[in-house]
């Protein structure tokens, strides 16, 4: 949160790219290490069948998960391009 406050005060988008790259690299390396550690555990195949790298499989189904996560990503993208959830909802309203 401390570094995020510096990014807010700086008011430059480049700062967020740098933060995203650093945090993405740090967390990706740490998550890969955790996955390798978990792969040595007894219940690893059961865990691997229920999850992907970061997100869980919904209803233990790859197809359902892909559809629901795609819809969620589409809604987020549409609301972002419209300027937020409120403006996106207003643009979908029938006049």
Could you walk me through the main structural features you see in this protein, from its secondary elements to its overall organization?
The protein is mostly helical. The chain starts with a helix and ends with a helix. It is 75% helix and 0% strand. The chain has five helices and no strands. The chain has helices at residues 2-10, 13-38, 44-50, 62-82, 85-92. The protein folds into two domains: 1-42; 55-95, no CATH class. The longest helix is centred in the N-terminal third of the chain and has 26 residues, at 13-38. α1 runs antiparallel to α2 and α4 crosses α5 (85-92). The mean pLDDT is 88.
In short:
This protein is mainly alpha-helical and 95 residues long. The chain is 75% helix and 0% strand.
Search tags:
single chain; 95 residues; mainly alpha; 5 helices; 0% strand
Number of helices: 5
Ends: how far apart?
Answer: 42 Å
Overall structural class, as computed from helix and strand content, comes to mainly alpha
Round the Cα radius of gyration to an integer and report it. Answer: 19 Å
Mass-distribution shape: flat
The helix fraction, in percent, is over 70%
Average pLDDT over all residues: 88
> Would you identify the regions where 5 or more consecutive residues have pLDDT less than 50?
none
Count of folded domains: 2
Total E-strand runs: 0
């Amino acid at each position: 949160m401390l570094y995020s406050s510096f990014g807010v005060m700086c008011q430059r988008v480049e700062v967020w790219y740098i933060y995203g790259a650093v945090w993405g690299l740090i967390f990706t390396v740490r998550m890969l290490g955790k996955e390798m550690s978990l792969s040595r555990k007894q219940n690893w195949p059961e865990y691997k069948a229920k999850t992907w790298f970061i997100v869980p499989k919904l209803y233990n189904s790859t197809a359902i998960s892909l559809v629901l996560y795609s819809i969620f990503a589409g809604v987020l993208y549409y609301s972002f391009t419209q300027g937020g959830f409120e403006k996106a909802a207003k643009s979908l309203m029938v006049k």
